[in-house]
Write a structure and sequence with these properties.
By secondary structure, the protein is α+β, with helices and mostly antiparallel strands. It is 31% helix and 21% strand. The chain has two domains: 17-208 and 304-341 and 406-469, no CATH class; 344-404, 2-Layer Sandwich (Dna Ligase, domain 1), CATH 3.30.1490.270. It has helices at 20-28, 31-48, 76-100, 105-108, 114-118, 166-179, 181-184, 195-205, 229-239, 295-300, 313-316, 318-321, 324-332, 349-357, 383-395; strands spanning 67-74, 140-147, 153-159, 217-220, 242-244, 249-252, 255-260, 263-266, 269-272, 305-307, 339-340, 344-345, 362-366, 376-377, 400-404, 410-415, 418-427, 429-432, 437-439, 444-447, 463-469. The chain has a five-stranded mixed β-sheet with strand order 1-21-20-17-16.
Length: 472
């Protein structure tokens, strides 16, 4: 694996421009003062109650996501290019999703194999020929990007179903402003606190044509046992909308209403954090107690907007991800601004043969996996683990893709032994409304806290950082 790009010190050891003021501040700040503020940040997070549930881990079902007090910093110029690339990618994703549920021009053109779509378990035939309000499918996207050099960001994966993490982005900034006002005073940092207003505006803009001038928005949660429930309640509060569960909603004459103390109130837009399979027991899983009977009928009648749209899981599929450069070219007639990470599709015999011969060098992922589960990091795995994965690949090659083990860029991070570089990625949040696309200036930086680790997922022990975009 190549040497990781150091975002603070660059390739030649010279402090990069965006980090120069932070470097001066760190040289003036005693280590014990930094440790004190780190401890204070942890106490604040505990008091606020920011937790993340870990499924399958009885000892850590509710825990804090570790927070690192050293910010990650990007220059305005770096952000401008990244922002433009993100908008391009999300435009293409929305066009792709509309096409595969309507004309299917990209399939007829042979740019993507038909079986990859039609035999995909997250393809929703119920969405065929259904016109969603204003042709927006992905209202909220979390596009995971990584950096391996000074010049380019690479997209690692697209999160188009129910991307999470924005509450941590907002709380990270709040904590940093409270604990480090002196450091903030030395920088001009683009704000992230406008995100709730931007999200609410985007959601209202895609209300059905039958909605009133003040559309009613509600946030649908699976409930308190969901791993991201804190975020659901946090966002509902920030947006000023009702947090509802399936039992709080009812469908009458293809319209959705929520039960209130003053009677039924129509709901025009549902920001749903419930997966497709569970949103309507009359259409999908009949055993679901999380959804709303008849919700899909109201959706098909055009009386309610679901954000994100049903069927967007196709865009999350990691095999489909490998075709994103072609998708951008096909729909926009432009070259992709953001590159994909090189990807081998194990469903293709030649790619599978290569992957099987190089398992100890590659990262292998399930096409529908998330949270860092079900993946193999070859260089960090034992021979027994690799051989077990080899058998799995041979049995189910269609379920996996492989990528090179990237030397993710590093940022300075507080550790038990002082400041040290740790690998990071970035999840910017992209909002698509009726007329425009907005990217909050920053996003959620995730950091692999263990020395040498490349796994940044919070479910796998990763932490988070505040992400600063400088106003150049």
């Amino acid at each position: 694996m190549a040497v990781a790009f150091d975002e603070m010190n660059g390739g030649n050891g010279d402090i990069r421009q965006a980090y120069q003021e932070l470097s001066r501040w760190l040289s003036e700040t005693p280590p014990d003062a930094l440790e004190y503020r780190r401890h204070e940040a942890e106490l604040l997070f505990r008091r606020i109650g920011i937790t993340f549930a870990v499924y399958g881990d009885a000892a850590a079902q509710e825990r804090l996501i570790p927070f690192d007090v050293i910010p990650r910093i990007l220059s305005g110029k770096e952000w401008a290019r990244l922002e433009t690339g993100l908008k391009q990618r999300v435009r293409a994703l929305n066009l792709f999703l509309r096409d595969i549920y309507h004309e299917r021009d990209i399939l007829r053109a042979g740019r993507i194999p038909e079986d990859l779509i039609f035999q995909n378990p997250v393809f929703r035939p119920e969405m065929n020929q259904l016109d969603v309000p204003h042709n927006v499918y992905v209202h909220i996207a979390g596009i995971d990007v990584v950096r391996i050099d000074a010049d380019d960001f690479y997209v690692l994966e697209d999160n188009a179903r129910t991307p999470s993490g924005v509450s941590y982005m907002l709380e990270n900034r709040e904590i940093m402003m409270r604990l480090f006002p002196d450091l903030f005073a030395r920088h001009r940092i683009a704000p992230v606190e406008d995100y709730p207003d931007a999200l609410l505006s985007a959601l209202r803009s895609v209300a059905p044509h039958s909605a009133t001038t003040e559309p009613t928005v509600a946030l649908l949660t699976p409930g308190i046992y969901n791993s991201a429930y804190f975020e659901h309640s946090f966002l509902a509060d920030k947006l000023g909308v009702e947090l509802v569960e399936g039992r709080d909603l009812v469908v009458r004459n293809d319209e959705v209403f929520m039960r209130t103390t003053e009677g039924l109130k129509r709901v025009d837009v549902i920001y749903r954090r419930v997966d497709d399979d569970f949103i309507d027991p009359l259409t999908f899983r009949p055993d679901s107690a999380l959804g709303v009977p008849g919700l899909m009928s109201a959706y098909m009648a055009g009386k309610v907007t679901l954000a994100n749209a049903v069927g967007t899981g196709i865009a999350d599929d990691k095999a489909v991800y490998s075709y994103m450069p072609d998708i951008v070219r096909f729909y926009l007639d432009e070259e992709p601004i953001l590159k994909n990470v090189p990807t081998w599709r194990c469903r293709e015999p030649a790619d599978l043969a290569y992957v099987l011969d190089h398992l100890d060098e590659l990262v292998v992922k399930e096409v529908h996996g998330s949270g860092g589960y079900g993946m193999l990091i070859g260089p960090a795995s034992s021979k027994a683990t690799i051989e077990a994965f080899r058998d799995k690949l041979k049995r189910e090659p269609d379920g996996f893709i492989a990528q090179p083990t990237l030397a993710l860029s590093t940022c300075p991070t507080c550790t038990a032994s002082g400041l040290a570089p740790r690998h990071v990625d970035l999840r910017p949040f992209v909002l698509s409304g009726r007329d425009d696309i907005t990217v909050v200036p920053g996003g959620l930086t995730r950091v692999a806290l263990q020395e040498g680790s490349l796994v940044v997922n919070s479910s796998q022990g990763g932490g988070t950082k505040d992400t600063w975009i400088l106003d150049d």
